[in-house]
Amino acid sequence: MFKVFLVEDEKVVREGIRENVLWEQYGFHYTGDASDGELALPMIRKIQPDLLITDIKMPFMDGLSLIKLVRKELPKTKIVIISGYDDFSYAQQAIHLGVEQYLLKPIIKDKLVEMLIEMREKMQEERYQQQYIENFKLEAQEYENFSRRRFFEQIVTGGLSVSEICETAKNLNIDIIAPFYNIVLFSLSSAEYDGSVPESYTENLAAVQSNVTKYFIDHPKLIFFRWNITTYAILVKGSESNIERNTNSCIENIKNRCAIAGQDVNWYIACGTPVSRLSAIPNCFAEASRILSYRYLCPQEHILSETSIMNLRENSRSQIDAGNKEIDLEHVRKFLSSGTIKETDDFIDQILQNVGEEFASLPIFCRYLTMSIYFAAIKYLDSIGCSIDILWSPEFRPDDSISTIDAASRYVHQVIKQTIELRDLESIKQQRDILRQAIDFIDKNFSDASISLDRVAKEVNISPNYLSAIFSQEVGQTLIDYLTLKRIDEAKRMLRQTDKLLFEIASEVGYKDSRYFSFVFKKIAGCTPSDYRKGAKQ
Question: What does DSSP say about strands 180-190 and 101-104: parallel, antiparallel, or unpaired?
């Protein structure tokens, strides 16, 4: 049912329209009426009708003034005006304001009903189109789009000038201009995730990932993109007065969707400090990345901040003062299993800052640090069945001559980097096997309407998030893009070579709704299926 509201100053006309039409029979719910625009406006704001029928000439606030306000506040509301013959100049102005139709007084019931039927069909079509667009966006997972991901990588690493950012954003249809910006990063993975093997499928993790990503797709002002396999980034926009509120709201919504998973899912959130320039976003991103990298040392803290970092340092120094000067090797193992090379310097800095500058500068600590990291790396690689021959080579063996913190940091970075590279090579071998399985499954089953990212992920037993990331990374397009193109290519073949009806073709390539099939076909092919068939025959 569509909501309709009437504004008419003549009581007899108003009551006649209200009482003489079987509104629900024509797909409308009559939500109320008013005698002038001034009385109507607060009611319209509250009801937010789909269709507004209003007279032009009324006391206190006329129809034109009302239409201007409704157009500004409720741009999706359809407006039909009522006017007499002598009001034509007003009607012309109303038409320039974007009204759909106008009815001449006296109002004839048949004309009113005809208008309602026409408006219902138009609004239904627009509603279908909006549903199709939302469904298409949800399926397409635009945040995984390779061009989009590359664009945001270049923004947050300072690889583009401001003019290049604006031009690229325009080409990608991304509204990026705002007075202020902030970056929110969040990491999401199963509690058992180890970077050396693909993340297994679990219903709980899949549900959380779907819930979180759907939230951002439904809120386009929060620009959402993937950073790596387990980490996402959100570019939050706002004004000077509301950027912090927008940032906190974003964090709160992620938290609420992740917290329901309990202990089965690891999730961490960090943000930067708001900036007022596009050129300052890399600094904001670097700050958020540094804070997020503390998740390896603060595994119990889900929302990381400078405060949680300070608390960690105070606790670490208290332990040192009490005589406990050991590095927590479980934290090192966690980092080796799921950290990235880009996070390595931050992780090493964290270890050094936590023990304090005075203690970290002692030669005995430098040797202890190098030995601890070296043997932690050997133990980790052995645990995942990875060859450790390269770490036994003289190049990587710890050197007793290392006595300064700079030399120790360089050595530790070298060992961690090599360990992560070996881990990732091991993971890539398995990733490619899984990708082949996923692509084979799609190729054989694309005509099944139930095929989705989640269904394919379940089939090859890895998390949808992980499959989505490696598919985009390795294939250069999202899994759903691949599936959609497969379906549309087969539809083109059938349109060229068979006389099957459109609804039959839609069904045979995996679309239950032939209207949605036509919508997707036009998005991909640039023309309707009917036009494509005509062109192919010509």
Answer: unpaired
